[in-house]
Amino acid sequence: MIHPVILSGGTGTRLWPLSRAAYPKQIMPLVADVSLLQATVKRVGDPARFAPPLLICNEDHRFLIAEQLRDLAIEPQAIVLEPIGRNTAPAAAAAALILGESDPEALLLMLPSDHHIGAPDRFLAAVATALPAAAAGRLVTFGIAASRPETGYGYIKRGQPLAGQPGCFAVERFVEKPDLATAEAYVADGGYAWNGGMFLFRADRLLAELERFEPALLAAVRKAVATAKRDLDFLRLGAAAFAAAADRSIDYAVMERTAHAAMVPVEMGWTDVGSWSALWEVAPKDAAGNALIGDVIAADLKDCYVRGDGRLVAAVGLENVILVDTDDAVLAVHRDHAQDIKRIVDTLKQSNRREHLHHRRVYRPWGSYESVDNGDRHQVKRIIVKPGARLSLQKHAQRAEHWVVVAGRARVTRDDEVFDLEENQSTYIPLGAVHRLENPGDVPLHLIEVQSGGYLGEDDIVRLEDNYGRA
C-alpha cells in the first residue's frame, strides 16, 4: 500500500491575476472540470493500491482544501497545516514522521498538487515500476522525458540500470536550472530528464538520510510533530519548532547528496503549469493555435491565450499574447515574457496593494463575500452563506451594518434576539451589537450587507464564538 503525500503550498504569483495568495492555482480548474489538486487526489484514488492521501498545506488554504476533498467524497488520512512555508524537505520529514509512527517502512509517494499529467496511466505504470526499488530502500524520483530545451526546470542525469529492478536507473547527478545552450545540449544528449519533483521512498529511509545530512532540520520537524495540535479536522504543526527548520528542498537536502537515489524515466504529458505559457501549451486550441476561455470574441489572433472571468473580452490582431481578465485586474503579456509576471506581483506588494492577495470575491469556510462598492464611510458586500453554515458570533467597534436578504433564508442573532429573515426582508446591526448570521435552509443564502462607520477593515471583528476555530 502506497501513502500519497500531496504538497499544497504556493504563493499564487506565476498565474496572476487569476491565481492569488489566498486562492492559488492548485485550487482552480485550470485544465479540466476539477482543480489541479482534485485531479492529483483522483490520480491516486484506487483503494487497492493507495491509502487515503495525507495533505500538507498552508494553513490559510485549509478550508478551501477540505471543501475540495469533500466535493470528491475523499476522507484524507490527515490535513497537516504548516504554520510557515519551509519548502519541501521539512514537509517530507513531517509526513515521514507521521506515517512512519505506525509503520516505519511505509511507502510515501510525494506529489505536488499543482501539476498537470496528461497521461495518468503512464504515471501509474511508472509508480508500479518504482515500487520494488523504493521498497528495497531506494529514494526514487521520476525523470520526465525532456521534449524541449527548458530553462525553468531542473534536470536529472540518468546513470546505469539497477540490477534486478527493470525500468529503474541510478542517478548520476542532479542539475540546477541551466541556461538555454546547456538545456539544448541536455536534450540532444538524451540522457537527461526534467526533475518533476515527485518521489517514492520508505519513511525510515528518508528519515535516515535526513539524520545524516540535515540533523538540525529533522530535529526541528520532529519537535513540530511532537507538539502538533488537533484543530477541527486539521493537524497543526508546532509553530515555533517548525519555524526553526531550515528552508530546504528535498532535492538539495537529500536527493543530490544520497548514494541511494534512483530514477524511473517516464513520458506522461507532464507540466508544472508554472506560467501562462505552460497553461497555453496544455489548453485546447483552435486551428490558429488560440486558447479562448470564457466570453471571448476574437479576430485575427494567432497562438494566443485569452481568458475572461465573467465579462466579455474582445481581442483583434494579436500574436503570441496572453490576455487575462478578472473582476479587478487585466493582464496583457507576450508569451515569451510570461515568466516575468513576478515583477508585477512584487510591485503590487511594494505599493501595499491587495490585488496579489485576494480577488474581489473572498472565500471563507462558511461561503464567500464580494465587495461591490466602497466609499469614504461605507462599503457594500455581497455575501453567500452555504446551507447549514454560520458565521462567527462577533461584534464591531467601529461600524454598523444593514442586511438585506436577496435569496434564501437568514437566521439572525442580534444581542438577545434570534429571528429569521426571508427574501426581501432586512435588519439593522447597531455598532457594538453582538451578532451572528447563519443559513438554516438547504439552499445558499444570498445577502447584501451595507457597512457604515469610520473604519471598515476586516480586522474590526471581535469573534466571541466560531465553528471554525477562529475565535
Note down, in words, how this protein is organized.
The chain is α/β, with parallel strands linked by helices. It folds into 3 domains: about 1-270, Alpha-Beta Complex (Spore Coat Polysaccharide Biosynthesis Protein SpsA, Chain A); about 275-345, no CATH class; about 360-465, Jelly Rolls. Helix content is about 25%, strand content about 35%. The protein contains 11 helices and 30 strands. Strands 20-21-22-29-24-27 form a 6-stranded antiparallel beta sheet, with no helix packed on it. Strands 6-9-7-8-12 form a 5-stranded mixed beta barrel. α3 (about 90-100) packs across α6. The chain is globular, with a radius of gyration of 25 Å. It starts with a strand and ends in a 6-residue tail after the last strand.
Globular, elongated, flat, extended or rod-shaped: what is the shape?
Answer: globular
Q: Report helical residue fraction.
A: 10-25%
- Provide the residue-averaged pLDDT: 93
Question: Percent of residues in beta strands?
Answer: 25-35%
SS-derived structural category:
alpha/beta
N- and C-termini, Cα separation: 39 Å
* CATH homologous superfamily identity of the largest domain: Spore Coat Polysaccharide Biosynthesis Protein SpsA, Chain A
Counted by DSSP, the helix tally is 11
Low-pLDDT regions = none
CATH architecture of the largest domain: Alpha-Beta Complex
The number of domains is: 3
Gyration radius, to the nearest Å? 25 Å
The number of strands is 30
Largest sheet: 6 strands, antiparallel
- CATH classification class of the largest domain: Alpha Beta
CATH fold type of the largest domain: Spore Coat Polysaccharide Biosynthesis Protein SpsA, Chain A
The spatial strand order of the largest sheet comes to 20-21-22-29-24-27
